[in-house]
Specification:
The complex is a heterodimer of chains A (460) and B (504).
Chain A (H helix, E strand, L loop, with lengths): L8 H11 L4 H4 L21 H13 L8 E2 L12 H7 L2 H4 L11 H18 L3 E2 L6 H16 L3 E5 L4 H10 L6 E5 L1 E2 L2 E2 L1 H7 L4 E8 L9 H10 L3 E6 L17 E5 L15 E5 L12 E5 L5 E5 L6 H4 L12 H38 L4 E3 L8 E6 L3 H10 L2 E2 L2 E2 L10 E5 L6 H27 L1
Parallel strand pairs in A: 1-15, 3-4, 3-7, 7-8, 8-9
Antiparallel strand pairs in A: 2-10, 5-6, 9-10, 11-12, 13-14, 14-17, 16-17
Helix pairs in contact in A: 4-12, 6-12, 7-8, 12-14, 13-14
Chain B lengths: L7 H4 L28 H4 L17 H12 L23 H6 L2 H4 L11 H18 L3 E3 L5 H18 L6 E5 L5 H8 L3 E5 L9 H7 L4 E6 L12 H10 L3 E4 L13 H4 L3 E3 L20 E3 L11 E7 L2 E7 L16 H36 L21 E4 L1 H7 L3 H10 L6 E2 L8 E4 L7 H20 L2 H4 L12 H6 L10
The chains are: A alpha/beta (460), B alpha/beta (504).
């Protein structure tokens, strides 16, 4: 008997008899000879549970995780503390193991969670309608551009270079498929250049895509940028980091039409990049163009309050080739973690957390920029993340820091060639002042060592 | 005259977390401020700041736990009972997988950690890619897509890149009329037009119709095999020939792979691109609607266009090293951030290592045996006249029944049968899909169910039909014992309420 099945010899005999065949092989008789696999799969043999555990634990041990070093890596995913109650709730089988709630009478828990989640996203973004989640941040940006195409049918998407490189790449993959061109608007002093944007936006612009805070950690002054886009009749899409939204002006108040973003920092583990969730919120007028699942409130035949998947005529399983997206499986369990996290933080806590990051990021930026050979790449306001410029080879500096158990952040040159000297540093509530001071010590020595090395090399 | 008795859940009025909120309550204790407290205005100009905090709940931990625990009791789930939802492969989710996914080396690994310090994760991804490649019978794999439909989009965009690279302008994609809704939706998102291919009386692709439609305008045929009727297409070799002769690619929707693991490989059938649903055949829990993952496997001619980054394995004097390769001149690029849903990869990899080659094959064999056994049970005289099989006597991993006679003779529809099954403690099968079967019921038991469960389910169906013959109103008004009863879906769509109104 194989793992996770219950078939006995006796079952097999009696089941075959009722079916009316002699063997299991007979059930596969319809498969033509030419397409049958005539050998076992070339895979390792199965193993008992404890051996599988040991094998996987061995692989996990070969990764350096946020458990093993003081990490300042961010760039889209952040090492926040995930409160214990999240694991406890999302590991309940009633949340972990059901399918998409197509039968609402027995899925009220999941549907109400979606409704509560949609409410929280709506509050953070200042936009009235939210879906129940998409795959992640970058794919949500792609979905928003598709919504713009459905809304106004225009050809171009103008995307700020301050938008996460993965989001820009995803747009570049998806947009040509449905006939859109992607044009990049440059940054100036770390933020989107409004004048340059105005020169790129016109009657062919379907959407302008921005990010808040942007990839370099800078808080964008969205108002003039929204104005430029709106004057041309383009939609404004803003990718947002959800925790900073607790203290930043919500996109919905500033005339943004669609707010999307990466939800990982709301109660989700790093998981080497996934699963997390993407959020997607919009103005009322786009509700019937939204991608994905949406839960709505209603009543049952006895007048009890209940929830259903609503506006399903947007969706692939009903509308097929005329659907507003092809999404079927989303990231509902991760969105549940998100809404639990927001409830745990609460109305006050979410602001306190954002303000703590704001203060620590400011302290870290000042402290690090005061080191010899280190300066701030831009002086814009930041909330949780900021960019430095090093007068030393960044990759080598990062290696030196890592060897001392501190991961100083992301060498920007890997994703933005225009900043070969850049280092992107992220702060969360898990990085204390002591951690920041330790980074300053390690980074300062690493930069100094690399500079003296390169000076020695130059003198030689 | 019977007295209606309310269940505890029915007595409970749905209350949201926002309605449990009271000003001043809290769960979160922030870390102490350990840096100088500068005025906020110096850090963030007032015009960039929010005037009022977002209206999130104010609740303490015990209340949060009780709230979500209460909600969980209003959900049916796979660990509680049979879930024969066709096309969804609701097989058991092994508990080991949650444990290995939660290991800090996986769970707290940052996606931008240098590859040299993420060797375990990259090796796991490499091993999973190799295993999926072997199961698909195609040499190259990308794990990046996050769901089946995401894999489909990747596949059709790869098809587009392949044709474009050869200067070949094509505009159409063929899908059978039995296809999952995701197929046509994907085609549109990738900028192609959908053309439907008819289904033959035996439930397979109408080969003559395909021959007529497969011309130089066609970029791709998307197919599920076994298809959504639960039937393996016996003409698959000829179908592949026709498609390839037309210069098009053949795409495999892997939703039904659970029927043929280790028995027949899409690559050997002639498919160029395959997607897997790790949340179906490979046991990732569905999570009430995700997360899943939809890796794809492709042939040599499609490989240059695969998404980046790719996991690569390098061997030299220093041993084996894994890396992420971002280079690829002809790559279509990315479909999402980072490396994909790695936590899902961990679970599916654990599953493949648990079962091994023989175990995967046996899983498929038992899935098909269970489906055929349940199909045979449905031939009982108290069921079959009302709910006959739509196609033949045999199936692969799932089968379709038609409720048309039941509707005509007993006056209850498939949806009524489904709602009444809820009272019997079952999640109903998929209803009204595939579209070409009237009053369709698509049943997929999976390999992890016992024979007794299948028999009890058949008994429940027989009982509901017997009941309906006496009084169709019972099923028409079902369910009765669920937390809520039938809901006003039309009303919900007419004037959508999709969030808790902000406090006055």
């Amino acid at each position: 008997m194989s793992r996770y099945t219950s078939l006995t010899e006796e079952d097999l005999r009696e089941m075959l008899a009722l079916i009316g065949v002699d063997s299991v092989d007979d059930l596969f008789a319809v498969i033509p000879e030419g397409v049958r696999l005539r050998r076992p799969l070339d895979l390792p043999e199965g193993m008992p549970e404890q051996d599988v555990y040991a094998h996987l634990a061995g692989l996990a041990a070969r990764n350096v995780s946020a458990e093993d070093e003081i990490t300042f890596l961010g760039a889209g995913m952040y090492d926040h503390y995930v409160p214990a109650l999240i694991d406890s709730i999302i590991s309940r089988s009633e949340f972990l193991t059901p399918y998409t709630p197509y039968q609402p009478e027995i899925s009220q828990g999941g549907l109400q969670v979606m409704f509560e989640y949609q409410t929280a996203i709506s509050e953070l973004t200042g936009l009235p309608v939210s879906n129940a989640s998409l795959y992640d941040g970058p794919s949500s940006v792609g979905a928003a551009a598709y919504l713009a195409k459905l809304a106004n049918g225009r050809r171009d998407v103008v995307v700020s270079r301050g938008v996460h490189p993965h989001s820009r790449e995803t747009l570049g993959t998806l947009a040509p498929g449905y006939g859109q061109r992607v044009v990049e608007a440059p940054l100036r002093d770390g933020v989107t250049d409004a004048a340059a944007l105005a020169g790129l936006v016109g009657p062919d612009t379907a959407a302008v895509v921005l990010q808040q805070p942007n990839f370099l950690g800078a808080v964008e002054d969205l108002e003039p940028l929204v104005e430029v886009a709106t004057a041309a009749g383009a939609l404004v899409v803003c990718a947002c980091d959800p925790l900073p939204l607790a203290i930043l002006r919500p996109p919905g108040e500033l005339g943004v039409d669609v707010a999307v973003g990466e939800g990982q920092s709301l109660g989700n583990r790093l998981d080497y990049g996934g699963p997390s969730f993407g959020f997607f919120a919009a103005t009322e007028e786009h509700i019937r163009r939204m991608p994905g699942r949406i839960a709505g409130e209603t009543r049952d035949v006895d007048g009890r309050r209940g929830f259903v998947l609503t506006l399903q005529t947007r969706e692939q399983h009903i509308r097929r080739e005329r659907a507003t997206s092809n999404i079927c499986t989303a990231q509902v369990l991760n969105a549940l973690a998100g809404v639990i996290h927001l409830s745990w933080l609460g109305k006050r806590g979410v602001v306190e957390l954002a303000e703590l990051m704001l203060r620590r990021a400011d302290y870290a930026r000042r402290t690090l920029a005061a080191l010899p050979g280190v300066r701030a790449l831009h002086e814009q306001p930041v909330v949780r993340e900021f960019a430095l410029a090093l007068e030393a080879p960044v990759e080598a500096v990062v290696e030196r820091c890592a060897a001392e158990g501190v991961n100083p952040g992301l060498p920007l040159g890997r994703v933005m060639p225009e900043h070969p000297d850049g280092l992107l540093v992220a702060i969360t509530e898990q990085r204390s002042r002591a951690d920041i001071d330790r980074l300053a010590d390690v980074l300062g020595r690493a930069v100094a060592a690399e500079r003296s090395g390169s000076l020695a090399g130059a003198r030689a | 005259m019977s007295v209606a008795v309310q269940t505890p859940q029915q007595r409970e009025h749905a209350t949201t977390i926002y309605e449990r909120s009271r000003p001043g309550r809290r769960a979160f204790t922030p870390p102490a401020l350990d840096v100088p407290e500068r005025p906020l205005d110096e850090l963030l100009p007032a015009r960039l700041r929010r005037a009022a905090p977002p209206e999130l709940p104010e609740v303490a931990e015990p209340e949060i736990v009780r709230h979500y625990n209460g909600l969980s009791k209003r959900n049916f789930d796979l660990d509680s009972g049979f879930y024969p939802l066709g096309s969804c492969t609701m097989k058991h989710n092994p508990k080991l997988h949650e444990r290995v996914a939660a290991l800090p080396g996986h769970a707290r690994l940052h996606p931008l950690q240098a590859p040299a310090r993420a060797q375990g994760a990259l090796e796991l991804m490499w091993n999973l890619e190799r295993a999926l490649s072997e199961i698909a019978g195609l040499p190259h794999v990308s794990l990046q897509p996050s769901a089946g439909s995401h894999g489909e989009l990747a596949g059709v965009l790869l098809t587009r890149a392949y044709h474009a690279d050869r200067g070949d302008e094509r505009t159409l994609v063929l899908t059978p009329d039995t296809a999952h809704g995701t197929n046509p939706a994907t085609v549109t998102m990738a900028g192609y037009e959908v053309v439907k291919v008819a289904t033959a009386p035996d439930g397979g692709v109408d080969v003559e119709d395909l021959r007529r439609k497969a011309d130089g305008r066609v970029a791709c045929l998307m197919l599920t095999n076994p298809n959504t009727l639960g039937l393996f297409d016996p003409n698959i070799e000829e179908i592949a020939r026709i498609v390839h002769d037309a210069g098009a690619t053949l795409y495999y929707d892997g939703a039904n792979l659970n029927a043929v693991m280790g028995i027949s490989r899409p690559g050997d059938m002639g498919f160029d691109i395959v997607h897997f649903n790790l949340h179906k055949s490979f046991t990732q829990p569905h999570g009430g609607g995700g997360p899943g993952a939809g890796p794809i496997a492709v042939s040599d001619r499609i490989e240059p266009y695969l998404m980046r980054p790719r996991v690569v394995r390098r061997e030299d004097g220093d041993g084996v090293r894994f890396d992420l390769d971002h280079e690829g001149e002809r790559s279509i690029g990315r479909l999402r951030g980072f490396q994909g849903n790695f936590g899902v990869f961990v679970r599916s990899y654990a599953y493949i290592r648990s079962l091994g080659a023989a175990g995967l094959r046996e899983a498929s064999e038992i899935a098909v045996l269970n489906a055929n056994y349940l199909m045979a049970l449905m031939r009982r005289p108290e069921i079959a006249p009302h709910l006959p099989a739509a196609f033949g006597e045999r199936c692969m991993h799932e089968f379709v029944l038609s409720g048309a006679p039941m509707k005509r003779e007993l006056g209850i529809r498939t949806t009524d049968l489904a709602k009444r099954l809820l009272d019997f403690g079952y999640h109903p099968p998929t209803v009204y899909f595939p579209l070409l079967v009237e009053e369709a019921l698509l049943v997929e038991p999976t390999e992890t169910e016992t024979r007794e469960t299948l028999e009890a389910f058949a008994d429940a169906v027989a009982e509901i039909l017997r009941e309906a013959a006496e009084d169709p109103e019972i099923a028409r008004n079902a369910p009765y014992g669920t937390p809520v009863r039938r809901l006003d879906e039309a009303g919900a769509a007419r004037s959508p309420v999709v969030r808790q109104p902000p406090p006055a």
